[in-house]
């Protein structure tokens, strides 16, 4: 696992000390809020509707057990006993007091963590597949490349004043679990005839103007990565619309100039700067790779697993739903659902965090991950340990078997916490999950992604949900707009608006109607919601959502 | 023509705790909106906002929020401000369970 080097360590410690001084000066009145606000935002501290919120970074969603224990300690000591895992693969605390925040940051620094936010119009955090280093379908672990990009872009002089912020995501697998097509630049590690290279996507993003990334290069040689990314950012830096913040993202530049023109300009710029790269970056990459080296995998038999699977239907159901294929024989990737029916998506108690940390220590080579779907992953568990692990999860109320199903809902904090929200999202998620649990049809429904945002900023990724829900304020009342047919994977698509929005009382029945209606429309139990939608188009689904209009038209 | 002024209260969040508070006629901050000064005159409201915003050592980001008169004092008219008087809906946390400053 990636270790801080001395520079990182000193830098984080110094930032904590600085922030402690800044908080003191704000409290004693020598700093105004106007002076203090940018400083607290840089340190991950936001002011929300009811309290402050501290956002702690979890780079590449990767944690060890000591770090998870520390997150539990923070939840218990400075918050109300829980933390919120988010789609940005980080954790947020909803109730810290201003005076406590420097202590929280100091505790985090003890385990090589921080809340420093890359802010401003720079290259933001680089994200990676949460199954990195474990997935069976992986060509290579994407985290070293992500870390190389982070190190290179931090303090890069040309990129401190970009037209807008810039986000990169990297995956090393065919299946896209990092939503790379909804990032400014998405990178996929590929292998052709035994040679490694990269597919480069550009111009994706959600928010106000959702767009799916387009292919800028289909197979970039490994050694060309940094100069090519630099060329791309540089072209956008020149062309990007600085006049209008809503048009400044690279997705708009690509849209306005066309991908061919962008490709031509990038190639031109690339030819200029390629000679200035002397290969040091490749040496650095090799060093980073060594830090992300895989654990020593065991080679024991899996009889215990096979017996429990055959004998225990509850274990079987959980295993079928929450395990993914690991690249090492005898291993599995465990997704721990933080989506118990009726609970807040992504919220874990301090006790649950400690249990997960313990399980990682005991059975998981000391590794945990946070997924952008707000679940916790144990990436490396030997199958013979799964029966015991399952029992421990059950005891901690963490054995919900719903990964990828209707109740595995992404929901942003919405108006229960977020100052920018136009409506609530958590209660909608809670009610939908509760309803499908009552109906006991989740496993019949099969794979379904429901994603909810409480405003146009789209933190809940609603545009790429099979069913997306966007909470709005319509004349002073909460109103929920449904989008259909979105997809966050390698076949990414932006969902289409279904029609008029629904009131807070009507949105859950509308979703129920939609899902039951899909079950009538599908040609077999194997055809998923998104497959049926693609086969039949939006019309039959709209008729289900708006039965009166359908009857009038008939 | 300018839009007619609708009644307001002044609200913000406390500097130390982040808790939502309302500005009273005595220039103090209360955790109960019912104790807020009810502002029906636009010029007076703007003046009071300036006075409220001078208290930067106590609170953060005062603003005018729509309100109407209830039985016990001002009450919010918009759901966002209503949530701020109670706390989140997913847990019994915040004002709905805590006694206020
Ligand atoms: C509660 C405090 C939060 C605030 C104030 C906030 C604010 C914002 C804003 C203003 C944007 C739009 C940025 C822009 O394009 O200009 C944004 C985007 C985003 N937020 Fe949040 N957010 C919050 C919480 C969260 C949480 C909890 C998550 C994860 C569950 C999240 C995930 C995202 C993501 C993924 C985007 C990017 C959408 C895109 O691709 O453009 N945010 N957020
Ligand atoms: S989508 Fe809107 S409401 Fe939800 S967390 Fe983001 S900014 Fe807040």
Automatic annotation (TrEMBL), chain A:
Report the top EC class in one word: oxidoreductase
Quote the protein name from its UniProt record. Sulfite reductase [ferredoxin]
Catalytic activity, EC: 1.8.7.1
Listed Gene3D superfamilies = 3.90.480.20, Sulfite Reductase Hemoprotein, domain 1 (3.30.413.10)
Q: Does the keyword Cell membrane apply?
A: no
UniProt keyword list: 4Fe-4S, Heme, Iron, Iron-sulfur, Metal-binding, Oxidoreductase
Q: Which organism is it from?
A: Octadecabacter ascidiaceicola
Nitrite/Sulfite reductase ferredoxin-like domain: from which residue to which, for each copy?
Answer: 52-110, 345-395
Upper taxonomic classification of the species?
Answer: Bacteria, Pseudomonadati, Pseudomonadota, Alphaproteobacteria, Rhodobacterales
Which ranges carry the Nitrite/sulphite reductase 4Fe-4S domain? 119-271, 409-526
Drop me one GO molecular function for this one: heme binding
Q: Does the keyword Cell division apply?
A: no
TrEMBL record, chain B:
What is the name listed in the Swiss-Prot or TrEMBL entry for this protein? Answer: Sulfite reductase
Q: Which Pfam families match?
A: DUF2849
Q: Where is this region: Disordered?
A: 78-101
